[in-house]
Design brief:
The chain is α/β, with parallel strands linked by helices and 263 residues long. It has twelve helices and eight strands.
C-alpha cells in the first residue's frame, strides 16, 4: 500500500524542504518508487534546491489536468523530473515559483492528483506550506479559492505528518504555537517530530533546552534530532543533489536515513 507523507513546519524556515527532499531520496534508496511533490502555495523551493529549470510548475499543471479529467499516469510522469539519488531514482513534481498562482492549487484538484499518485508510487512525500489558517472560509465567498487549501488538503489525507522545528529559541516558540493548531485541526493524524539544525559543542546546552521545552510545554517526548551540518548542506545546494549523492557519509545524511527507515 502506498504511503502519503506530509512534511510541515511553522513559519521561519525550519528546514522542511530540505527534510522533504532528503527523506524522499532515502526512501528511493530503499528501493521504493517515490514521488516528491512541492505543494507550498506560498512559493515552491524544491525545484531551485535541486537545480531544476522548470518554466511550468509540474504540480500546478497536474492540478489543471485533474480538473478537466485529463490527468493520467503517463501525464503525471511526463510532468515530473527524474532525480538520481545514488542507487535509486526520485520523481519530482515542482511547485509554483510565483506565489500569485496559488488559486491553481484548489482542494479538489489536489485531492485528485494525490489519489492518482498514490495508485502509482510506493510513497508520496509532499512539502506543504506553513500556514494552517482557515479564517478565509469565514470572510470569503463559499466558492472562492482558498490560499491554504493545498496545505490543509494534504495534511488531511496524509498517513504521516513530519513536523519540522528549528532548534533555536524562536524556532521552538513558533513550533509549539503552530503545533497546537495542527493537533486541533488533525487530532487523529500520526505525527513524527523532527528537531532540525541541532548544533553540538558550545550550543549543546541550548539544544538540550529545546528538547526539554518541547517535552514540557508540548508533551513531545520522542523527537528526532538532525545535526546542523553546514558543510553537507552547502555541498547539496551547490550540486543541486540530495545528500545521498552529494554528502553520503555526512552525519546529517545518516540521521535522515534513520528517520526514513522508521517512517
Amino acid at each position: 500500500m502506498s504511503k502519503l507523507i506530509a512534511v510541515w513546519g511553522p513559519t521561519g524556515a525550519p528546514g522542511r524542504t530540505t527534510v522533504a527532499i532528503n527523506l524522499a531520496a532515502e526512501l528511493a534508496e530503499q528501493g521504493q518508487r517515490v514521488l516528491l511533490i512541492d505543494a507550498d502555495s506560498y512559493g515552491g523551493a524544491i525545484a531551485p534546491l535541486l537545480g531544476l529549470v522548470d518554466e511550468a510548475a509540474g504540480f500546478a499543471a497536474a492540478c489543471r489536468l485533474a480538473e478537466s479529467g485529463a490527468l493520467t499516469q503517463d501525464e503525471l510522469i511526463r510532468l515530473s523530473h527524474a532525480i538520481p539519488t545514488g542507487a535509486g531514482e526520485l520523481d519530482v513534481l515542482s511547485g509554483i515559483v510565483r506565489s500569485d498562482r496559488w488559486p491553481e492549487l484548489s482542494a479538489e484538484r489536489v485531492k485528485k492528483v494525490l489519489a492518482l499518485a498514490m495508485e502509482n508510487w510506493d510513497a508520496v512525500v509532499v512539502d506543504v506550506g506553513f500556514n494552517l489558517e482557515t479564517d478565509e472560509e469565514i470572510t470569503s465567498d463559499l466558492f472562492a479559492p482558498r490560499r491554504n487549501a493545498s496545505t490543509l488538503t494534504v495534511l488531511k489525507q496524509a498517513d504521516c505528518i513530519i513536523e519540522v522545528a528549528g532548534a533555536d529559541a524562536l524556532g521552538i516558540a513558533r513550533f509549539i504555537r503552530a503545533h497546537d493548531v495542527l493537533v486541533e485541526n488533525f487530532p487523529e493524524s500520526l505525527r513524527v517530530i523532527v528537531l532540525n539544525k541541532v548544533r553540538s559543542g558550545l550550543d549543546a546546552r541550548n539544544t538540550a533546552q529545546a528538547a526539554a521545552t518541547l517535552s514540557r510545554f508540548a508533551g513531545l517526548h520522542e523527537v528526532y534530532e538532525l545535526p546542523a551540518d553546514d558543510k553537507a548542506i552547502t555541498a547539496s545546494f551547490a550540486s543541486g543533489k540530495p545528500l545521498s549523492t552529494s554528502a553520503k557519509n555526512s552525519k546529517l545524511r545518516k540521521q535522515i536515513q534513520t528517520l526514513a527507515g522508521n517512517v
